[in-house]
Write a structure and sequence with these properties.
ATP binding, Phosphoribosylaminoimidazole-succinocarboxamide synthase, SAICAR_synthetase_CS, ligase, alpha+beta, binds cytidine-5'-monophosphate, five-stranded antiparallel sheet, EC 6.3.2.6, 6 helices, Phosphorylase Kinase, domain 1
């Protein structure tokens, strides 16, 4: 597999074309950003840790029958993935109240949400990723009603698999963000990443924050804690 041109540079990953029209390479960089890119730092080893973490979690999801973009690790910081036509919305599931939900609704952080809450956000940095609903998604043509149902169903399937995975390793999966795309046959496939950059994880006993809130809130030991999460899951880094 040969890496070709830079296709897209996001805040933490760069996407490259390859000599295969149906495959891309995701390069996980050390860049760590928060607050719409207002706070950006380079964190040693984060690209490597997130690349391997993402591969590990996506493999668990594949084992559970959920189609993902990931094919294989190609270097410490790069993965080969299927090319998808990405749907420009973020699917967020919340098992416990935290983050923007707490700010928006004034509820207490840590409140258990039963059933878990599903939210859509539009992927648009300039507009600060506004919250949207199903009607916006269909009216503006970002996805069909059928595709919405599929994204919701898959997002909750991921929740069942990952809640248990993290629970068994002594952590609470508080919330997370997923992005989906369409493959060449029009199937909805899980894309982007699942890493501690895009979810909230708390230690079950102490409620220690083990995700990007450590960076957002200046709590320190960001990558060290991501490595601790990985090791608890049995992933050697
Ligand atoms: O900020 P908020 O509370 O809405 O985030 C919910 C979840 O989605 C968090 O786990 C956060 O890390 C993730 N998220 C993300 N990328 C965004 C927005 C949210 O990974 N652009």
């Amino acid at each position: 597999m040969e890496k070709r041109d830079e296709l897209y540079r996001g805040k933490a990953k760069t996407v490259y074309t390859t000599d295969d029209d149906n495959k891309l390479i995701l390069h996980f960089r050390n860049d760590t950003s928060a607050f719409d890119g207002e706070k950006i730092e380079q964190l040693d080893r984060k690209g490597e840790v997130n690349n391997k973490f993402n591969h590990f979690v996506m493999s668990k999801l594949e084992e559970a029958g959920i189609a993902t973009q990931v094919e294989e690790l190609v270097s410490d910081t790069e993965s080969l993935v299927k090319k998808l036509d990405m749907i420009p919305v973020e699917c967020v599931v919340r098992n416990v109240a935290a983050g923007s939900l707490v700010r928006r609704l004034g509820v207490e952080e840590g409140l258990t949400l039963n059933p878990p809450v599903f939210e859509f956000f539009l992927k648009n940095d300039a507009l600060h990723d506004p919250m949207i609903n199903d009607y916006h998604v269909v009216s503006f043509g970002w996805a069909t009603a059928e595709q919405i149902e599929k994204m919701k169903a898959l997002t909750f399937e991921v929740n069942a698999v990952l809640r248990e995975l993290f629970d068994d390793a002594g952590m609470i999966l508080v919330d997370y963000k997923l992005e989906f795309g369409l493959d060449g046959q029009g199937n909805i496939v899980l894309g982007d990443e699942f890493t501690p950059d895009g979810c909230r994880l708390w230690d079950k006993e102490t409620r220690k924050k083990m995700d990007k809130d450590r960076f957002r809130q200046g709590l320190g030991s960001v990558v060290e804690t991501y490595i601790e999460v990985a090791e608890r899951l049995g992933l050697k880094l």
